[in-house]
Amino acid sequence: MLKDFKFTLLEQNLFLHPYKSIFWLEKKILLIADIHFGKAAHFRKSGIAIPESVHLQDLARIEYLNNTYKPERIIFLGDLFHSEHNETWKIFKQFCESKFNFKTELVLGNHDILDKSQYNFLELHIENLIIKPFILTHVPLKTHDPNGLYNLCGHIHPAIKLSGMAKQSLSLECFYFSKNHGILPAFGSFTGRSITNKRKSEDEIFAVTNKEIVPLFRE
Amino acid sequence: MNLRFLEKKFDYKLAYKWFEKRNWKPFPFQKETWDLFLSGQSGLLNAPTGSGKTYALWIASVLELLEKQEFNKNKTPEGLKIIWITPLRALAKDIQKALKLFCEDHGIKWQISIRTGDTPTDERVKQLRKAPTCLITTPESLHILFSQKQSVSFFENTTAIIVDEWHELMGTKRGVQTELAISRIKNLSKNKLKIWGISATIGNLEEAVEVMLGPNYKEKPIIIRAQIQKKTAIVSIIPEIIDRFPWAGHLGIKLLPQILPIIEKSKTTLVFTNTRSQTEIWYREILNKKPEYAGLMAMHHGSIDNHIRAWVEDALSEGKLKLVVCTSSLDLGVDFSPVETIIQVGGPKGISRFLQRAGRSGHQPGGLSQIYFVPTHSLELVEGAALRTAERSGIHENRKPILNSLDVLVQYLVTLSVGNGFDEKEIWEEVKNTFAYKDLTKQEWNWTLEFITSGGRSLENYSEYSKVNKTSENFTVTNKRIITRHRLSIGTIVGDPVLNVRFTTGGYLGTIEESFISSLNIGDVFWFSGRALEFIRLKDLTVFVTKSKKKGGRIPSWGGGRLPLSSQLANLIRQKLENAKHGIYEEIEMIKLKPTLDLQQKWSEIPDNSSLLIEKTISKDGCHIFVFPFEGRAVHEILSALIAFRISRIKPITFSIAMNDYGFELLSDQEIPIEDALELDLFSLKNIMEDVEECINNVGLAKMKFRDIATISGLIFKGYPGKFVSNKHLQSSSSLLFDVFHQYDPENLLLRQAKEEVITLQLDYQRLVDALKRINMQKIILKNTHKFTPFAFPIMADRLRQKMTSENVYDRILRLQQQLESLDN
User: Fold this and answer.
1) What is the pLDDT of residues B563-572, one digit of tens each?
2) Is the pLDDT of residue B250 over 70?
3) Which of A10, A115, B298, B788 has its CA 20 to 30 A from that of A108?
């Protein structure tokens, strides 16, 4: 059984899911970052044999989340597609058109380099998308938003390393909420991770296991 | 064979006169090599460096070619005749010099060319247009030749392949590349090829020649032994005060005051250390103590710029240097006759390697080689005593040939497709005609072909795959980008990602691992290539530095490089301890070590051949179990994982595992139920295969192996250091690929290879079984000790660790968090 975790931020209820997504209850929005769809085919075109099933699982997970939360909007926080166009994009398009009766949305990420016409079945947000009290971007904003909006974003693929007695350590993907940024873990199954080791005492971190979300104490 | 007939037919007089003129005399082994080579045989010449092995084979080659053209020295033979394979491109120049010397003295103007990674492009093109008579090259460069369209006709006139330092190549994937190249050229040449290897002494010379000649060689392979092995005197540097608690790495430098007089007295000294970091440390410390050596001493290791290394080698052979601190990078080749003294820092872990190093000094045949052994922790003194026994009894280690490497095969087949393309039947025969792939099954072959053409077994899963095209005639690659990328990545040496180190003013220093640099901040000072450097900036895979006046600075560490103890040496070490246990202290090393061993006996035990010692200690870090099989790191790596795995079936538990050549440690924050585990037959051979397989997965050993396999088979493209090819969207880590395959393509044979390599390369599976059999006959002594014993201490202090767990992630997070809380309070 998969168990999500309710995290309240700025009086909004965010449900963090072990499938590495956030469901924002008040607005009925599902947030997903860094799927890197089409990456396997991109590798295959260059002679590196990666099986396609790695992406099919990601689609199945989106469908599961959709059935679980019944969101009214799905917003991808960038790096939806990994690189130049390939056949996998069609599969994704068909998936969106058959499963949702609304247009999914994309805040463009640095990997999203397809021709703009390719995105016609999505609603596109070039720089950011403001849904108060949040500002949604792909790359974390460098400077604090002048209107005091809190930045939800992706791009980093955050993970955290825990150490303890007996020289033990454990590294886990995580949701990372700092003073100004809430960073989502990368959704895609064919993505790397980057371990953050500059944790500040006020940062709130939620580790992802394959079953549940575990809030980590402050150090 | 009629020797007199041979001498006459091939005009040996030419060679005799040449030797006479130089005041040399041919050794019996040289003459024997000429005889056998010229009567058309293939084989192996067992001779040490500096013995005249090059002329043994080169003169025979020249005499044969001259005979073919009726001794007309002005004529040039048609096409490429002789291929000389060397493992190190640094050696190519010296070989070329030697080969040219004989020819020039006879007015023979044949082309003797070098083709390695250092050869400029225009020179390479020239060679393809007009082939030299002799080509000196490396296994990688030969394979790059196969990726050229002209390669088929290039080899059609070849008559002989000489493989220099074959002992270094065999037992590595470069050896497999060499076998493939030999088999290919055998087929491409119109002539009956002669194949000759040159090898230092190893335990399995007979096998070595068999591997080189391939399974289809039907004649009895020949081994010529030069019989000029020298006597070696081994002197251990013994600390005046022996620490009762040996701490790895710290002792060596403390012995410097005893070592400096030895260096002072000797004209030229080589100091061998086991790692590149140790080389940097020793260089710095010696320079601190002896600033007057500046300019007279140098360092040499694999991460230093080629040009600097070449300079050091030249200065060394010209006798200009007093001292060189080096790693195994100076094990090979070049005749360093001025070297008088060899110092080995740290256990050399193998007998053959140690004696070859000793042979670096005193090059007069029949002379006595002297080598000083500097222990880095006091227990290593046992190794000094063991090495002396080994030298006396003439024991040598084996080099184990590599079998069925599918990653190398994948790379090779793509190489051929990039070149002229290949015909399936023809290449199958060729590949089967190598020792490495003699047992390759049709099924594995078909999988490999599918892998390079369609990506994998299930076509639908691998749509849009583009690499090798299969047509009705052959397999070829047409995609230009894939061709370029493949040519850049031919080779089997896989290192950690490295960055270039360069002065801001332009000079190039060498390479350093990315992981080290990422731990530095701008302005930090680190020590590399024998000097203190300030980190200025990082740009385009290059670390820019300036010289720093600071004395200190961190020393980089490089991955890998820890060689495991050979089973022969491990055996001798156990014998020495057995003697100590029974109060027999003969060698000086053992006598000096007596107080340490006495303490070990008082607090715990000294294990003898009939007992296995296990110690259990509780510390503030948790519960420690130390096991001392004295089998060497390679065996301990698997054995410790196996034991941890079997204990973890009793209850959910997480271990961190450390090991050295003497034993291993399981450490846990929970009580380790060792008593219960021992009753359940912890060391049983039952289900051993299944258990080993499972623990290899759990500990992540297969994942570590997969890094090399993924790179060699082209799943990861790194580019060349310095030749950065932009392909950001193609980057991935081998560990991510491993996980993806593990989950979505578990039948992938490259995954299976990773598991097999853990068991067969890392360690002889048989060695593990033998070790377990031995342990099963031993009495197990379990000691609860209050403090870490002298045996346990160096293992406990080791920071390099593996993990093994049978707990679920959630419980682990909670416990790690609880420990954090209790630390706060």
Assistant:
1) 778 888 988 9
2) no
3) A10
The count of domains in chain A is 1
From chain B, pick out residues whose CB is under 8 angstroms from the CB of A214. Answer: 810, 813-814
Residue the block writes with tokens 């058959």: A98
pLDDT above 90 covers a percentage of chain B that reads: 46
Q: B interface mutation test: which of A170, A208, A210, A213 has the most B CBs within 10 A?
A: A170
Is residue A167 in some structural domain?
yes
Residue A117, burial from CB neighbour count under 10 angstroms (0-12, 13-18, 19+): exposed
B462 vs A52, A169, A191: nearest CB: A52
Contacts of B813 in chain A (CB under 8 A): 162, 170, 172, 207, 209, 214, 216
The whole-angstrom separation of Cα B712 and Cα B588 is 48
CA distances to A42, A179, B570 from A199, rounded to whole Å, are: 35, 11, 46
Look up the ipTM and state it: 0.88
- Phi, psi dihedral angles at A184 (to 5 degrees): -85, 150
Residue with tokens 């400077």: A143
Quote the domain boundaries for residue A30: 12-216
For chain B, list the domains and their CATH numbers: 3-225 (3.40.50.300), 231-393 (3.40.50.300), 421-479 (no CATH), 498-547 (no CATH), 605-819 (no CATH)
- Interchain pair A209, B654: CB under 8 A: no
Half-sphere exposure of A127 (CA within 13 A, CB side): 3
pLDDT tens profile B79-95: 999 999 998 877 888 89
| Residue A7 covered by a domain | no
Radius of gyration of chain B, Cα coordinates, nearest whole angstrom: 28
Closest CA–CA distance from residue A141 to any residue of chain B (Å): 23
For the record, the structure tokens of B127 come out as 């060679």
CB contact under 8 A, A166 and B668: yes
- Range among A130-134, B327-331, B706-710 rated most confident: A130-134
Residues 449-478 of B with CB under 8 A from A: 451, 455-456, 458, 460-467
**Is there a contact between A77 and A140 (Cβ–Cβ < 8 Å)?**
no
Q: Considering the entire predicted model, what is its pTM?
A: 0.87
Tell me whether residues A41 and B463 touch, CB distance under 8 A: yes
CB contact under 8 A, B729 and A50: no
| Number of Cβ pairs < 8 A linking chain A and chain B | 137
A1 located within any domain? no
* Cβ-defined contact of B729 to A212 (cutoff 8 Å): no
**Any domain includes A111:** yes
- Tell me the mean pLDDT in the region B489-512: 80
The answer to whether A47 contacts B482, with C-beta atoms less than 8 Å apart, is yes
Residues of chain A in contact with residue B668, where contact means CB-CB under 8 angstroms, are 166
pLDDT band at B489 (very low <50, low <70, confident <90, very high): confident
- Residue B743, chain A, CB below 8 Å: the answer is yes
For A194, name the nearest residue in chain B, comparing CA atoms only. B733
pLDDT per residue as tens digits for the range A60-82? 999 999 999 999 999 999 999 99
The tokens of B426 are what? 């023809």
Read off φ and ψ for residue B755, nearest 5 degrees.
-65, -45
- CATH label of the domain that carries residue A139: 3.60.21
